[in-house]
Amino acid sequence: HPPYPHYWDRLLPVAYMMYASPLGTQAILFSKSVSTLLRATLAGDSQLGYWFTYVILVAFIFTIIFWATRLDKSLKLFPAIVIVPTMQIGWTIFSIISGGIYFQEFQGYSPLQMGMFVLGVATIMVSVFFLTPSTADKYTEMEDMSAREAPLDVTDNTLAEPLSPGYRTSSDEELPQRVVNVKDLVA
């Protein structure tokens, strides 16, 4: 078994998603704002003389770069089969919520519609949680194959684990390790 509680396998990717998605999904709001400003400019009402146009453009560029770098970093920190669906769900949910608030789409909802919306979002989150495989299963397979477990060294905040557990190279060498620094999760 891994040297840490089994629920961390599911909790760490979700925590990373909760950190990256709220800011990353603001790129959608800023892109909608940029497109609205561009439409107005092309219709003859130039928006290029206003400082707000440039603030929105810079914010759009910043948030899209932030999201792309966090997605890239998440693929380095977690197995793709776990983090890709987790990040996609975070992107979707935070996009829906921030767009609904910013564009006032929730104002016309009846209590039943709001309840069904919340139920739908909760269903998506719970479904992805149960569909993503736990990396704890990976450690069980490693034990069965007489491979070594991933050591956790809390003194230097790193987690070392094989890149492809249970597999060896053609020369029967052990595969290199990926070292995850816990501090990198928020950097």
UniProtKB/TrEMBL annotation:
Listed transmembrane segments: 50-68, 80-102, 114-132
Keyword tags: Cell membrane, Endosome, Ion transport, Magnesium, Membrane, Transmembrane, Transmembrane helix, Transport
Protein name, per record: Probable magnesium transporter
Naturally occurring in which organism (per UniProt): Tetraselmis chuii
Quaternary structure and interacting proteins, as annotated: Homodimer.
PANTHER family on file: MAGNESIUM TRANSPORTER NIPA8-RELATED (PTHR12570:SF9), PTHR12570
Any matching Pfam family: Mg_trans_NIPA
Task performed by this protein: Acts as a Mg(2+) transporter. Can also transport other divalent cations such as Fe(2+), Sr(2+), Ba(2+), Mn(2+) and Co(2+) but to a much less extent than Mg(2+).
UniProt entry tagged with the keyword ATP-binding: no
Subcellular compartments: Cell membrane; Early endosome; Membrane
Record's bilayer topology term: Multi-pass membrane protein
UniProt KW Acetylation keyword: no
UniProt GO MF annotations: magnesium ion transmembrane transporter activity
Family in the record: Belongs to the NIPA (TC 2.A.7) family.
CC per GO annotation: early endosome; plasma membrane
Organism taxonomic ancestry: Eukaryota, Viridiplantae, Chlorophyta, core chlorophytes, Chlorodendrophyceae
